[in-house]
Amino acid sequence: MKALVKEKAEPGLWLRDVPEPAVGAGDVLIKVARTGICGTDLHIRAWDGWASRSITAPLVVGHEFVGEVVELGAGVTDVAIGDRVSGEGHLVCGKCRNCLAGRRHLCRATVGLGVGRDGAFAEYVALPASNVWVHRVPVDLDVAAIFDPFGNAVHTALSFPLVGEDVLVTGAGPIGLMAAAVARHAGARNVVVTDVSEERLDLARKIGASLALNVSERQIVDGQRELGLREGFDVGLEMSGRPEALRDMIANMTHGGKIAMLGLPAEEFPVDWVRIVTSMITLKGIYGREMFETWYAMSVLLEGGLDLAPVITGRYDHRDHEAAFADAASGRGGKVILDWTS
Q: Which of 40, 170, 254, 294 is an active site residue?
């Protein structure tokens, strides 16, 4: 089969012929239809410091996908051949304290699809049936391909009550955009999105942001005045990983405000802990999705009319992966999709 492979410990990805994955007991084999390009994939392609420490070549990369089940391993009963499925890309041990307590998203032994084992940028991918999400209602293939990052957005956005609240989203990358859309759909009063890319801020306007603010030109406090906010934001969703974004968010929260952080900083940095303590601000780290409560919420949100179409801005045949990755790395658009059906 064809697959995108990190073949060597150097920058680049290569489209190669590799063996189809074996299907063991409890596994399913999935014929991949579409995949989404993630920031993690960009790191692996660039072979930066994180990738060189975390990846062992050769490796089939990719973890955002949708496809059709074509083979079942022994003992699989809840998934059927022909099912349209996406996959939870965090494979957990099932034996640690958190797994046994039903908190699988907190497993300390998590292995990432396309990071710690061969992934989904391929014509076929094998996955434990316990990691498969069956789409029981119709869903657009492009949207189904990005259920993994959509789950990050939903997990982050729904960490705190949103109805009637004023929400600040720092970082208008694809996950930040989806989180803003979720916050608006879930009943937030105002949703302010910040970034320095006018192209991405335009996308934020399309998904319903109350205000899309270019922080290279204006300050968050200016946005507060424009919207008539007197006490700051109730909920913050930090999606950029930028030190200045978190500092600005903390400075613009109301007393008792709550911040969910998904953005991964490149290194440690200081924040105003006095403000956090005296304003009684809650900080919550987010990683991945709650299995499978977040997945249920994703499907229900889409059934309820949440529209993610504006977030998907690039579609490419898998053979045009170089152009697709360049588009994804440009920082100007939303999600980029690879088609594996041709």
A: 40
pLDDT tens figures, 118-143: 999 999 999 999 999 999 999 999 99
For residue 160, the number of C-alpha atoms closer than 13 Å in the C-beta half-sphere is: 23
pLDDT score at 266 = 85
How far does Cα 241 stand from its chain's mean position? 14
Do residues 132 and 193 share a domain?
no
Alpha-carbon distance 182 to 154, whole Å?
7
Residue 11 is part of a domain; what is its CATH number? 3.90.180.10
Examine the domain organization and report whether 66 and 198 are in the same domain: no
Whole-number Cα distances in Å, 230 to 163, 221, 237, 255: 18, 10, 19, 12
Residue ranges of the annotated binding site are 38, 63-64, 93, 96, 99, 107, 175, 195, 200, 262-264, 286-287
DSSP symbols for 287-337: -S--TTHHHHHHHHHHHTT---GGGEEEEEEGGGHHHHHHHHHTSSSSEEE
43 a catalytic residue:
yes
105 is catalytic: no
Mean pLDDT for all residues in the chain: 97
Asked if residue 188 and residue 131 are part of one domain, the reply reads no
Do 62 and 167 have their domain in common? Answer: no
Per residue in 293-310, pLDDT tens? 999 999 999 999 999 999
**Of 5, 24, 121, 2, residue with least CA distance to 66:** 121
> What's the total number of domains in the chain?
2
d(CA 318, CA 245): 35
